[in-house]
Amino acid sequence: MDIRTALKQGMAQLRAANVSSHTLAAELLLLHATGRTRTSLYSGPEDQLTESESQNYFSLIERRATGVPTQHLTGKQEFWGLEFEVTPDVLIPRPETEHVIEVALDRLALRNLRAEKSKIMSGEGLLIADVGTGSGCIAIALAKELPEADLYALDISYAALAVAQRNAARLGLSDRITFLESNLLENLSGVEAQHAAPQFGDHRSSKSGESAVTSHQSPLFDLIVSNPPYIARREAATLANEVRDHEPAIALFGGEEGYEFYADLITQSASHLKPGGILVLELGHDSLPAVQPLFDSPVWTNVGVTNDLATIPRAMAAEKA
Question: Sign of dihedral through CA atoms 298, 290, 274, 99?
Fold first, then answer.
């Protein structure tokens, strides 16, 4: 079978199974099955697939038709111009999460301008925390954009942290990111302010997230970012099965109503930010009415909301007074 025929048959099977973006999925799976680039795929549409390539491709097509996400079949997803490993242990990075990074960088740049510092941000002296890091996509993207910043990537999931650490190592950024198992920001209480937390997986740290390092002072951050779980459990039945059945529930569901994590996250962030420090949160499609009142406090100033391309309120930012 030649490439053109295989691609058409793959598209048809996925379309018949009502798979969203079936054309793109068929193309990505063919690229993965053959090891070709997109350019070589379309420059030689009459090239013949080997028997093993054909079997591999249509096996992937069948699995995608049953609801397995394309990213789980290829093991990767692009985000912020970087390629991330993804597994069923982490949320698949979504394009809308890039708004969190954009808002965070804009807020840091504005803070620099107010302080009459350089418009060029190297991140020198900045300490950043990514709460619920999952694949590490937010922390790693910020590490790329701020090459002199130090970061903490926190997650309650031991398995997710392993994926995040592999991504950081493969992209050459793990030397500036400390990986810590933690429920929100709770386990920072045992971390030295001098950034001396043991790396996730280090023999000095345990699976409970406890550190052999003791200190009475937790680090204070210039920036805290988070894409917390924000889907309501009562809405689980409305989700596409590829999301509901294949992505980790711990990263999807924020409680029965969906917004339960925000109150603790905002309260803890207030205790872990420097004065003038910035908090940026991703919002669910209907989270704003529940989350916005949580910032009605003298603790917070310069509260703002940014819409995504679909005009949905997607990122909320505030500064500690």
Answer: negative
In the block, residue with structure tokens 């004065």:
275
Number of Cβ within 10 Å of residue 58's Cβ equals 19
**Residue 58, phi then psi, degrees to nearest 5:** -75, -20
Task: Provide the angle, in degrees to the nearest 10, between the axes of the packed helices 22-34 and 3-16.
Answer: 140
CA end-to-end distance (rounded Å), the chain:
65
- 25-79, pLDDT tens digit by residue? 999 999 999 999 989 888 888 999 999 999 999 999 999 999 999 999 999 999 9
Residues with Cβ < 8 Å from 125, sequence gap 6 or more? 148, 222
How far, in Å, CA of 137 to CA of 153, rounded? Answer: 10
Paired tokens of 138: 């937010």
Please tell me the total number of residues recorded for the chain in this structure: 321
Exposure string over 190-220, b if 16+ CB within 10 A, otherwise e:
bbeeeeebbbbeeeebeeebebeeeeeebbe
CA distance 17 to 249: 24
Distance CA 70, CA 91 (A): 13
Strand pairing of 177-181 and 273-282?
unpaired
Give the list of residues 6+ apart from residue 243 with CB closer than 8 angstroms, or none: 69, 252
- What's the CA gap between 99 and 313, in Å, rounded? 10
- As a whole number of Å, the CA-based R_g of the chain is 21
Task: Give the pLDDT confidence of 158-216 residue by residue, as tens digits.
Answer: 999 999 999 999 999 999 999 999 999 999 876 755 444 445 555 333 333 333 333 44
Q: How far apart are CA 319 and CA 299, in angstroms?
A: 8
The DSSP line for 71-96 is: HHHHTEEEETTEEEE--TTSPPP-GG
Longest pairwise C-alpha distance within the chain: 67
Measured from the Cβ of residue 72, the count of other Cβ atoms closer than 10 Å reads 18
